[in-house]
Design a protein that fits this description.
Elements (H helix, E strand, L loop, with lengths): L1 H33 L7 E7 L8 E9 L8 E8 L2 E11 L2 E7 L4 E11 L2 E11 L1
Antiparallel strand pairs: 1-2, 2-5, 3-4, 3-6, 4-5, 6-7
Length: about 130
Amino acid sequence: MADVFRYRAGLAVLTVLTLLLLCSACSSSAASQASVDPAKVDVTVSTDPSPAPKDKAVKLTGAFTGIELDKSATVSFEVRNGGQSDFVDAEYAGNNSFGAEYTFKRSGINEVFVHLYSGDLHAMKKKPVEVK
């Protein structure tokens, strides 16, 4: 009977320790993102080819600094054309960058707003993109 009690007590302690370890692993990522100052997060937006041609698909890339990101983050590009906005979801490309394909509809300097969501953090940065 004493052996059964020790086994159950040991199993309960092991279960609690495992749950604590899992909770701390999950919260450390969210806590580290919550401590990031959105003002210190920046992004460089580039196109391939550069400058971007009008009415042809280009690779639009956002490379981030001031934060460490992985594929769990969500990034979208918002391209404003007059009174309308086009939203394009980007995919993680490694090295703190995200990319998507986009076709610019007007030449000149286009305003691209980059939206970053990581944990509780939402950062939005406005960047100019030249289109020929």
